[in-house]
Write a structure and sequence with these properties.
CATH architecture of the largest domain in chain A: Up-down Bundle
Order of helices and strands of chain A: EHEHEEHHHHHHHH
Radius of gyration of chain A: 17 Å
Helix content of chain A: 40-55%
CATH topology of the largest domain in chain A: Glutathione S-transferase Yfyf (Class Pi), Chain A, domain 2
Strand content of chain A: 5-15%
Distance between the termini of chain A: 30 Å
Largest interface: A-B, 48 and 48 residues
Number of strands of chain A: 4
Low-confidence stretches of chain A: none
Structural class of chain A: alpha+beta
Strand order of the largest sheet of chain A: 2-1-3-4
CATH class of the largest domain in chain A: Mainly Alpha
Oligomer: homodimer
Chain lengths: ~210, ~210
């Protein structure tokens, strides 16, 4: 199966898909879009992804957009190793943790939002960074509480194998490095982040290991 | 099965779950939290949902948070009628459309974000409304293009039965009413919205039909 991943090294939604492709042993061609230069808004790319966002996964069947939809599709079509547990309650827990990052932290801290804060409200870099850290703290405080107290938490977010929640959580931790987020209030998240990054599929997906890294 | 939905009449994430419960013929107790008064941040509720957000679905097994995780769980445990198509490619398409609303429009226009724009940057009601409309236009332009050109679109987002994408899209259309969003550039979305609201499960889930409606 020929797969082409349209993405950007520093994008955490791109990281999620790169790491999942690595976990499943699926090779792919890498196409990069410099988001700050607006390359994802070029007409050629909009034909693949009308939202002009990354990532897009080109498959023999067509183009897939939205990182979480791509991850669910990968898990359904290449089930080993699974990204979700085999029981409905466990799947709900993992999706809930993943979505606490993917819906409530990442979207409001995305580059396009920080640019809009600058252009509409004059937010300088310090104000943008403070905004970023605020929403990380809101989300991570709740996620840390859940991971620390729920019995399903193991070496990873859910037991002893990494999955959907870990992909989202680690992607966010990687983003946090650019905004000096203090991770000391989140020892469980920090422990899971370290456990994931010790695995080749995660390490090889890291921004600094991509061909378009600065 | 005794279900308790912790929610708020005007919350579109709550709407998604109310309409899905109605579609599947599942009855539930309704508990309301006045978001503007901070009721979802009270300690009793934080024990159910550490994020302090709505909705939360209490089930005999425990509490479920994150509307999309709740919807996937409902679909797995009460499969009829389905919220997702039975083929992997169709499911990816429906999730991608749903997520274009649920990840890229709703989170950045949420009440807590509009309040943060006011408190941090002095955004008045007009600036907040302009921010809201901007992100709706970004997302709806892309979604309209997809729905208008993709052959899978039918009376609803995907064929002739409503599902996950319709729940998210209609919830957003209901929110848009409060910010005078001009729907004329989005005839396909408007058509699908009307088709859904003609169905009792959607109509009965509308904000104005909830016990806590003003």
């Amino acid at each position: 199966m020929t797969l082409v991943l349209h993405n950007f090294f520093r994008s955490s939604t791109s990281f999620r898909v790169r790491a999942a492709l690595n976990m499943k042993g699926l090779s792919y061609d890498y196409v990069s879009y410099a988001l700050r230069k607006g390359e994802a808004r070029a007409p050629g790319y909009l034909a693949l992804n009308p939202q002009g966002l990354v990532p897009t996964l080109e498959t023999p069947r067509g183009s897939l957009t939205q990182s979480l939809a791509i991850l669910e599709w990968l898990d359904e079509t290449s089930p080993e190793p699974p990204l979700l547990p085999d029981d409905a309650w466990g799947r709900a827990r993992v999706r809930s943790l993943a979505h606490a990052v993917a819906l409530d932290i990442h979207p409001v801290n995305n580059l396009r939002i920080l640019f809009a804060l600058r252009d509409r409200f004059g937010a300088d870099e310090a104000a943008q960074a403070d905004w970023f850290r605020h929403w990380v703290a809101e989300g991570f405080t709740a996620i840390e509480a859940r991971l620390a107290q729920e019995s399903e938490t193991g070496s990873f977010c859910h037991g002893e194998v990494p999955g959907l929640a870990d992909l989202c959580l680690v992607g966010q931790c990687l983003n946090n490095r650019r905004f000096d987020v203090d991770m000391s209030p989140y020892p469980t998240i920090a422990r899971i982040h370290a456990a994931c990054m010790a695995l080749p599929p995660f390490a090889e997906a890291a921004p600094e290991n991509q061909p378009d890294a600065a």
